[in-house]
Amino acid sequence: MKHRFYLSAAAISLLLIAAIRARSARRPAYGGTLHVEIGAAVNSLDPSVAAGSVDEAEAKAEIDGLIYERRNSDGTFAGMSGSGPFHVSAWDAGKHVTLAANDDYPGGRPFIDSIEIQMGRSARDRMLDLEVGATDLAEIPAEQARQAVVGGVRISASRPDRLLAVVFLAGRPATQDQRLRQALSEAIDRSALVDFILQKEGMPTGGLLPQWSSGTTYLFSTAADAVASKALLAQIGGLHAFVLGYDSGDSFEQSVAERIAVDARAAGLTVTVQGSNAGLPDARLVRLSMPSPEPQRSLQSSLTALVPMAGLDTVQIPANASVEQIYAAERGVIDTYRVVPLVWYPHVFGLSTRVMDWRAPDPGESWPLADVWLNGPASDLSEKVQP
């Protein structure tokens, strides 16, 4: 009996020692360079200089969030450049930026010594570099997340915080009749957009806020109804056609626009799709990112962007608005059918195996790179990274 006890005790001791060693091996460590790739080309880090595109604006905000002390609730940044967890040590506009750890940062020195950010990398190049271990962190298109997993890439996704919607532009005669706009909304199979284009990385929506934020999105229908769409078009009479624009540099938007055209055709509505480098469309696809998880702030931000584009009356939501007031403001816009929400989808990140303590940021948060540390030799990527 004693012999068995001693064997059991020895086995337990060995397990405890192994567990302690494993935990020690994963204890946060200082040092190393984190390699990041982004698709946008950021031409200025000055917050007062406007970005040239939505993608550049988002990337610029992420970098600014690392070099300024903090991000204010209105999206501006407090402090001076270099007052954040990192400061700029090398800058090549639109191509590359190196950030070095700020030893005097009030929140504590970051674990990593520096961040190398390569700009203007295509989605394909970012995916390949993740697959072969040539980069540590890269945002990848949500519709390619499943493919990335198949390729062995480690994936991290935020909550669905990006909205894709059709916005009917103000003053366009072809879409002045509300019944035509409603007919398009009824014709679109939003579930198919999520299942086949986004590869299930998202959720269909009829509202301007995601369910996890407002709690009322389920009250907006997402069901496709070709019969109702045809009935609305029959009330108008005649032929029905308009032009839908999309970002010509975005394959996701192009796929969505083409799918919408197919759904519309089945209901008797002709939708011609064209890239942003063509003429002025009657409607266009618009992407919006939530600036905050708070429904009032997020909805107000979206309406500020959408109202002038769609020619709607200005909507001002009280800062302390109730759930009912927020829903009423949202419903008032949706019922005009000048804004037709389609899907909510997440930011998706690919990570190397050596990136530790990463957490996908919530809306309004910057990349949490001040808290990330690298598990492995600092030279792991030195021979793989492209200059």
Summarize the structure in words:
With 387 residues, the protein is an alpha+beta fold. It folds into two domains: 33-158 and 348-374, Periplasmic binding protein-like II (D-Maltodextrin-Binding Protein, domain 2, 3-Layer(aba) Sandwich), CATH 3.40.190.10; 162-345, Roll (Dipeptide-binding Protein, domain 3). The protein has helices spanning 2-25, 54-67, 123-131, 145-150, 178-187, 190-197, 211-214, 226-236, 251-266, 295-310, 323-334, and strands at residues 33-37, 70-71, 77-78, 86-92, 96-101, 114-118, 137-140, 154-157, 162-168, 203-204, 241-246, 270-275, 283-289, 339-345, 348-351, 355-356, 373-374. The strands form four sheets. Strands 4-5-6-1-7-15-8 form a seven-stranded mixed beta sheet. The protein has a six-stranded mixed beta sheet with strand order 10-14-9-13-11-12, sandwiched between helices. Helix 5 (178-187) packs antiparallel against helix 8 (226-236). The longest helix has 24 residues, at 2-25. It is globular. Residues 1-24 and 382-387 have low confidence and may be disordered.
Question: Could you list some keywords that capture this structure?
Answer:
D-Maltodextrin-Binding Protein, domain 2; Dipeptide-binding Protein, domain 3; 2 domains; 17 strands
Write the layout of secondary structure elements.
Blueprint: H1 2-25, E1 33-37, H2 54-67, E2 70-71, E3 77-78, E4 86-92, E5 96-101, E6 114-118, H3 123-131, E7 137-140, H4 145-150, E8 154-157, E9 162-168, H5 178-187, H6 190-197, E10 203-204, H7 211-214, H8 226-236, E11 241-246, H9 251-266, E12 270-275, E13 283-289, H10 295-310, H11 323-334, E14 339-345, E15 348-351, E16 355-356, E17 373-374
Parallel strand pairs: 1-6, 1-7, 11-12, 11-13
Antiparallel strand pairs: 2-3, 4-5, 5-6, 7-15, 8-15, 9-13, 9-14, 10-14, 16-17
Helix pairs in contact: 5-8
